[in-house]
């Protein structure tokens, strides 16, 4: 029996690798997800069968079965109801459940362990899994609340200083405990640590700004993965270690990618600080050309190659569907329409792609930033919708600008740029956008969704 | 030292996993980063295996730990089922293209 279970874990581990591997192309990704899911079900079922074959009290089995049944049903419900714009919240929520599971696991395990014989290393691992799980739990819940707009950023000194104090105590207390300075039992010590870690999770996410959310979600995701790996170590369970490490790696990779795309260091994101733009007096007068909807429609109707640069403003206005309609209309007129997507467009990595896929945009039309930049001079018209900082040429040619160094979509190198904007307000970075002053750039004022609708109506008539 | 001795195999394993993980995930295109994250999230639900293992050893009259363990199993399952279902739903949108 033992060998069967070990082989089952091996198959599960391989299925995780395979599942992630298949994610490298949109065509195979679905089978990849299925493969990983099958591996997971196998691992869980085998563990459960092992449970039944041992002499386990019925009460424990009944509780487990009930918990699994309810968990499956609720998970399915939540995932089939969510709007694609709400995806970051849901992923955060599921991440919180993973962290919560890791924390509770640690709390229960400590009472089952033979403390007298347990190795110090195992105790440390158990503690590490519990602490990381607790941080992921509350951190993800706060992230979810912030994404839902229910909790505002809080950058007060008290929050930031308390967060640092708690982090320090999370590192110092275990050392003190293990050298024997703190006279409480190990289980009680873990309960205390869990409370501190949960509080830290809250305070660590609170000061982080809304636009930095993609970084935080990725980071919390990787923390949950690491918590899983710690727990796997405690049980010597390879499927858990592998699963945890893969998730940890994915999270860290995405975290660094997001930081790079925003030109922010991870430390600055975590500290919640932001370099402010120079004050208004320093800014040059810009000569801005306004364009009307009918002029834009005319320009689009003559263009052969069109690029759309979507930003989060597009998603906020719920305009992705009407944007899809505009594309279909233009394609019927034999124009080629591509979307050039900046890595930070949206509220989590790759979010914009999902929103556009939902609006029935073929994935072959979704271009990554580098590919779009290479072909930029060939585009007749570039339509910038709800994006600002990511098309600011100052990032490349003005070393004084706070956005300097951030990778951008070089819309200004195309033949004509139309920026759809609600007002002359500034982007997240609070800096003037040099693009607006360029000769080939004009601005279409108005609500993104209403303007797109009007564009579609007018194009139908042309 | 005894700890290292006992766990040396796992330590090798972790190191290999780190490299395989980075190698495999670095190849995922930006277009699929959201499904990658939610899929990875579901995989981290493998912690459920640990929750089941610990539930096997809780005495049937230890109600506090049974409750905590039960919640852990529930949360782990929610993580797995929700994660895979929602990833599947997203990927279906990428798949149904001509």
Q: What is the average per-residue confidence, as pLDDT of chain A, rounded to a whole number?
A: 88
Q: How many strands appear in the DSSP assignment of chain A?
A: 6
Oligomer description: heterodimer
Largest β-sheet summary of chain B: none
Number of helices of chain A: 17
Choose one word for the global shape of chain A.
Answer: elongated
Chart the SSEs and their pairings.
The complex is a heterodimer of chains A (462) and B (98).
Chain A: H1 2-22, H2 29-53, H3 58-81, H4 87-112, H5 120-147, H6 157-178, H7 186-205, H8 213-235, H9 238-262, H10 266-271, H11 293-302, E1 305-310, H12 312-316, H13 320-332, E2 336-341, H14 351-358, E3 366-368, H15 369-374, E4 381-385, H16 394-397, E5 417-421, E6 441-445, H17 448-461
Parallel strand pairs in A: 1-2, 1-4, 2-3, 4-5, 5-6
Chain B: H1 2-26, H2 33-43, H3 47-57, H4 63-95
Helix pairs in contact in B: 2-4, 3-4
Q: How would you characterize this protein structure?
A:
The complex is a heterodimer of chains A (462) and B (98). Chain A contains 17 helices and six strands. By secondary structure, chain A is an alpha/beta fold. Chain A has three domains: 1-81; 86-274, no CATH class; 289-461, TPP-binding domain (Rossmann fold). In chain A, helix 16 (394-397) links the parallel strand 4 (381-385) and strand 5. The longest helix of chain A has 28 residues, at 120-147. Chain B has helices at residues 2-26, 33-43, 47-57, 63-95. In chain B, helix 2 (33-43) runs antiparallel to helix 4 (63-95) and helix 3 packs antiparallel against helix 4 (63-95). With 98 residues, chain B is mainly α. Chain B is flat and about 50 Å long. Classes of the chains: A alpha/beta (462), B mainly alpha (98). At the A-B interface, helix 1, helix 2, helix 3, helix 4 and helix 5 of A face helix 1, helix 2, helix 3 and helix 4 of B.
């Amino acid at each position: 029996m033992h060998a069967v279970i070990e082989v089952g874990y091996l198959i599960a581990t391989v299925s995780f690798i395979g599942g992630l591997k298949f994610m490298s192309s949109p065509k195979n990704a679905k089978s990849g997800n299925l493969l990983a899911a099958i591996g997971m079900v196998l691992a869980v079922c085998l563990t459960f069968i092992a449970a039944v074959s041992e002499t386990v009290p019925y009460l424990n089995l009944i509780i487990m079965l009930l918990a699994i049944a309810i968990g499956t049903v609720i998970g399915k419900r939540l995932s089939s109801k969510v709007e694609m714009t709400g995806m970051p919240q849901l992923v955060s929520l599921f991440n919180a459940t993973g962290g919560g599971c890791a924390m509770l696991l640690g709390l229960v395990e400590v009472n089952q362990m033979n403390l007298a014989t347990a190795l110090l290393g195992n105790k440390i691992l158990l503690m590490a899994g519990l602490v990381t799980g607790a941080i992921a739990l509350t951190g993800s819940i706060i992230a979810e609340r912030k994404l839902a707009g229910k909790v505002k950023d809080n950058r007060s000194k008290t929050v930031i200083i308390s967060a640092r104090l708690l982090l320090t105590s999370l590192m110092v207390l275990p050392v003190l405990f293990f050298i024997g300075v703190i006279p409480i039992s190990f289980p009680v010590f873990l309960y205390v640590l869990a409370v501190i870690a949960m509080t830290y999770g809250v305070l660590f996410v609170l000061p982080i700004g809304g636009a930095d959310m993609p970084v935080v979600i990725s980071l919390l995701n990787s923390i949950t993965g690491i918590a899983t790996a710690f727990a796997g170590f405690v049980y010597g369970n390879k499927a858990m270690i592998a699963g945890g490490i893969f998730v940890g790696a994915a999270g860290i990779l995405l975290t660094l990618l997001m930081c790079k795309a925003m030109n922010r260091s991870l430390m600055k994101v975590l500290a919640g600080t932001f370099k402010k733009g120079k004050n208004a007096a320093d800014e040059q007068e810009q000569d801005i050309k306004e364009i009307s909807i009918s002029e834009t429609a005319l320009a689009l109707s003559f263009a052969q190659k069109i690029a759309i640069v979507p930003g989060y403003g597009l998603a906020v206005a719920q305009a992705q569907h009407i944007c899809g309609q505009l594309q279909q209309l233009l394609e019927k007129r034999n124009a080629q329409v591509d979307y050039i997507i900046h890595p930070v467009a949206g509220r989590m990595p790759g979010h914009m792609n999902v929103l556009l896929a939902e609006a029935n945009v073929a994935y072959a039309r979704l271009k990554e930033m580098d590919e779009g930049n290479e072909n930029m001079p060939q585009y007749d018209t570039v339509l910038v919708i709800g994006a600002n900082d990511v098309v600011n040429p100052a990032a490349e040619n003005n070393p004084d600008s706070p956005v300097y160094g951030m990778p951008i979509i070089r819309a200004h190198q195309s033949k004509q740029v139309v920026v759809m904007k609600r007002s002359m307000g500034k982007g997240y970075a609070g800096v003037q956008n040099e693009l607006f002053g360029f000769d080939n750039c004009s601005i279409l004022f108005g609500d993104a969704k209403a303007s797109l609708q009007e564009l579609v109506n007018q194009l139908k008539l042309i | 030292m005894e700890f290292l001795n006992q766990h040396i195999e796992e330590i090798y394993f972790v190191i290999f996993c780190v490299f395989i993980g980075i190698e495999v995930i670095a190849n995922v295109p930006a277009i699929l980063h959201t499904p990658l994250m939610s899929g990875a999230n579901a995989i981290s639900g493998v912690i459920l295996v640990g929750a089941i293992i610990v539930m096997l050893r809780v005495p049937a009259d230890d109600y506090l730990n049974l409750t905590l363990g039960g919640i852990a199993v529930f949360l782990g399952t929610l993580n797995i089922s929700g994660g895979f279902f929602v990833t599947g739903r997203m990927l279906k949108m990428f798949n149904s293209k001509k």
